[in-house]
């Protein structure tokens, strides 16, 4: 047996696909729509959420036996708020431009339903190591969708990836633009992020029929 | 052996296989099916989905042909070398510009319909026939074909197929396609260049340093929103000798098409009439605001507000949208009372968006899409009101 038992591996792999926080549980949609116009912002957001959720889950899990259940939501909020402030300050210190782009959405990680959801549903009832894996797994599932959406929105909307002009220069008319290609402005608007998420959900459910709800 | 029996044999041969729906669709579209119901039917009506669709297409053909003539006519007028409206020169420009639009629209749209029919193993539905005809009529003439193809693919898949195909869609597919184009490629869908063939090309030549005159390709709505004078007469506007999307300029032909749809009972006269009423009411309100001096003449809304209320019916895509798209039976309200409310709000909101948001001069597109979303809600309340009324009657009787 390696580092992770089979059960532990499942904690990480499940949220990536069959129990994805965005496409299956439909949580954290707000930030997925708001900050995915650029791939870079998506990646930073994914990493930030992963740090907050991974550490937060461990902290809550360590405190789980001493938190009075009546005030547990407040305690959880304090923990997540403290972590988010650290992330925010780190971003401001080392990557000011990017923290400008992300603006209020870093602060709004506090209200990301995925985080409170994992605290409530997992960290309060499990040990720190398993909670850590669960946090990383869920944040990775969230980040995966963010990166996919960010990839398509930046590529089709701006013709760039991480700021590199992969399709050519729209003003100089090089690359694809020389033959009349133009960027799709709709991709930069939030509704299109919703449609891209919808298409991902569609693809996922048509590949795995068990995910389709009865109604 | 004719094509018909060939197709029939193919149909029999592929029966039950993956590609059967494709052959069935071609066969049904071109000919009467070999197997029709022989006995046991008690309601006999000649109009099936195919015939309904074809009637709407017939109502649009005059607009298409007029659009071809107008494309060339506007092109040469803008160049400063006007030609006769009904001339081969004018028609030729229109033909080579509009025909590709039509082919791309039908090719991509029907291709996707066939694909989905094969994947989902159902018969090909006729729903795209009308959409495919509407699309070339509501886009600017110089739109690049690949953009149209992308938009058609988006509109058919996201606007229709994800909801379950023909008859299940919430939004009008043709307008979904246009809205997609409008938000994705605004430089090709609005402004003062795209509405006349050649204007974009000419402006690029000028940007590259060529010494030629710019061509104006502005619509009347665009000019008004900019506060420019317009130099088209009322009869030009009514008969459609004005720049605009390919097939929506001639209010006269649209009116004839509308009467044809009403006469054949395909289009709802309630929606058309109430929509016109809504537009007139909103226009009158704006005229009142402008004439009572509540708005300064320097305001950017003044020119559009001060436009005579009934001119709004003649300019822009209002007439076309009202007759051919607001009446789409799938996305409109189903109840008679609902149709009045639905149509009225479309007219009312079109003019409101048109005046207050010069960036979106095509208010009618957004108004119809918005009301498409609200149509089921309107129906719900109309039905509930009826239920309540009848419950009350029941209580009075039993009391």
Brief digest:
The complex is a heterodimer of chains A (215) and B (399). Chain A is mainly alpha-helical. Helix content of chain A is 61%, strand content 0%.
The general outline of chain B is globular
Alpha carbon gap, first and last residue of chain B: 74 Å
> What is the count of DSSP helices of chain B, taking H or I runs of 4+ residues?
17
The description of the largest β-sheet of chain B is: none
Strand fraction of chain B:
under 5%
* Oligomer status: heterodimer
Indicate the structural class of chain B: mainly alpha
Q: Estimate the mean pLDDT confidence of chain B.
A: 82
Structural class of chain A: mainly alpha
Note down, in words, how this protein is organized.
Chain A is an all-alpha fold and 215 residues long. Chain A is 61% helix and 0% strand. Chain A contains nine helices and no strands. The N and C termini of chain A lie far apart (42 Å). The termini of chain B are far apart. The mean pLDDT of chain B is 82. The chains are: A mainly alpha (215), B mainly alpha (399). Chain A binds chain B through residues 180-182, 184-187, 189, 195, 198, 202, and chain B through 144, 146-147, 150, 158, 162, 180, 183-188.
Topology:
The complex is a heterodimer of chains A (215) and B (399).
Chain A: H1 6-13, H2 29-34, H3 39-63, H4 72-94, H5 96-102, H6 104-107, H7 113-121, H8 128-158, H9 190-207
Helix pairs in contact in A: 1-8, 3-4, 3-8, 4-5, 4-7, 8-9
Chain B: H1 3-13, H2 20-30, H3 49-79, H4 88-120, H5 128-137, H6 145-159, H7 173-184, H8 186-189, H9 199-207, H10 220-226, H11 234-239, H12 251-263, H13 269-291, H14 302-305, H15 318-325, H16 336-356, H17 363-398
């Amino acid at each position: 047996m390696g580092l992770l038992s089979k059960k532990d591996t499942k904690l990480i792999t499940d949220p990536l696909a069959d129990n994805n926080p965005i496409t299956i549980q439909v949580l954290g949609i707000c930030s997925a729509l708001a900050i995915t116009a650029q791939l870079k912002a998506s990646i930073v957001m994914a990493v930030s959420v992963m740090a907050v959720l991974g550490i937060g889950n461990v902290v809550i899990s360590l405190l789980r036996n001493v938190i009075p259940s009546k005030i547990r939501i407040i305690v959880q909020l304090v923990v997540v708020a403290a972590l988010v402030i650290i992330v925010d300050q780190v971003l401001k210190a080392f990557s000011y431009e990017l923290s400008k782009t992300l603006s209020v959405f870093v602060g709004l990680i506090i209200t990301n339903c995925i985080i409170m959801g994992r605290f409530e549903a997992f960290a309060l009832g499990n040990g720190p190591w398993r909670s850590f894996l669960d946090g990383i797994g869920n944040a990775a599932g969230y980040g995966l969708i963010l990166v996919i959406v960010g990839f398509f929105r930046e590529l089709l909307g701006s013709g760039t990836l991480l700021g590199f002009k992969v399709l050519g220069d729209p003003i100089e008319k090089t690359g694809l633009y020389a033959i009349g290609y133009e960027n799709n402005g709709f991709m930069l608007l939030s509704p299109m992020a919703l449609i891209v998420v919808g298409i991902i959900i569609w693809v996922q459910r048509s590949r795995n029929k068990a995910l389709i709800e009865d109604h | 052996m004719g094509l018909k029996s060939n197709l029939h044999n193919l149909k029999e041969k592929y029966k039950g296989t993956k590609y059967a729906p494709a052959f069935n669709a071609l066969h049904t579209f071109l000919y009467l099916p070999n197997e029709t119901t022989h006995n046991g039917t008690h309601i006999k009506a000649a109009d099936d989905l195919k015939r309904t669709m074809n009637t709407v297409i017939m109502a649009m053909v005059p607009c298409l042909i007029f659009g071809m003539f107008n494309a060339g006519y506007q092109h040469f007028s803008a160049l400063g070398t006007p030609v006769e409206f009904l001339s081969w020169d004018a028609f030729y420009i229109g033909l080579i510009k509009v025909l590709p639009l039509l082919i791309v629209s039908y090719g991509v749209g029907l291709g996707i319909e066939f694909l989905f029919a094969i994947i989902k193993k159902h018969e090909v539905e006729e729903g795209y026939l009308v959409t495919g005809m509407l699309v070339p009529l509501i886009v600017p003439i110089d739109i690049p074909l690949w953009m149209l193809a992308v938009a058609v693919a988006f509109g058919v898949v996201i606007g229709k197929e994800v909801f379950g195909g023909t008859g299940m869609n919430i939004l009008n597919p043709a307008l979904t396609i246009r809205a997609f184009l409008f938000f994705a490629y605004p430089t090709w869908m609005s402004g003062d260049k795209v509405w006349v063939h050649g204007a974009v090309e000419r402006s690029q030549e000028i940007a590259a340093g060529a010494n030629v005159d710019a061509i104006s390709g502005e619509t009347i709505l665009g000019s008004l929103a900019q506060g420019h004078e317009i130099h088209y007469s009322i009869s030009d506007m009514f008969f459609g000798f004005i720049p605009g999307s390919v097939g929506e300029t001639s209010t006269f032909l649209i009116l004839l098409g509308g009467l044809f749809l009403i006469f054949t009972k395909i289009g709802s006269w309630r929606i058309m009439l109430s929509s016109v009423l809504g537009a007139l009411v909103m226009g009158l309100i704006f005229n009142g605001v402008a004439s009572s001096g509540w708005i300064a003449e320097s305001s950017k809304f003044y020119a559009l507000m001060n436009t005579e209320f009934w001119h709004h019916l003649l300019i822009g895509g209002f007439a076309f949208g009202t007759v051919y798209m607001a009446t789409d039976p799938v996305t409109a309200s189903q109840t008679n009372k609902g149709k009045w409310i639905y149509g009225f709000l479309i007219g009312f909101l079109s003019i409101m968006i048109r005046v207050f948001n010069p960036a979106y001069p095509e208010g009618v597109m957004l108004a119809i899409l918005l009301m498409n979303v609200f149509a089921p809600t309107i129906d719900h309340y109309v039905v509930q009101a009826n239920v309540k009324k009848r419950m009350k009657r029941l209580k009075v009787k039993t009391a």
